[in-house]
Amino acid sequence: MLAEDLKVLLASVNSLSIKVQYFHWNVEGDNFPQYHDFFGNLYEEIYSSVDKIAEYIRTLDTYAPGSLTRYAELTIIQDQLKVPRAELMFAELFEDNAKMIELLNHCFASASQENKQGIANFIAERLDAHEKHQWMIRSVLKKARA
Ligand SMILES: [Fe+2]
What we know:
- The chain is mainly α.
- The protein is built from six helices and no strands.
- It has helices at 2-26, 32-47, 50-59, 68-74, 86-113, 117-141.
- Helix 1 crosses helix 4 (68-74) and helix 5 runs antiparallel to helix 6 (117-141).
């Protein structure tokens, strides 16, 4: 059901942007300035979709969740309580973002099935953004050619 899928998406986008912001604050190492900026841009881009997701949930005549308790129940993104090394931060975000792409594909299918073309269009744009994030994270993880 699209409304329920969008609630999971809202919670997951919030969780992921909190995690990326946490990495933005705490990343360390040789490439600190680039990593700090990369995570800064990434959490802002991801967070920029939150309000639209919530408002689409309202167009489906149901309420948008807005509490940490509900988000913890709904999210597909697991919290990070430790401060991983930079490379592990990227590896974790690669896995998390892959889950987001899977969830967005599922939301797109639900929106199409329920004939909500405007929402499907918005979800397609978010898929595009998260696939671009995946490319960038993958490129950081790839070892430089000798
Ligand atoms: Fe900042």
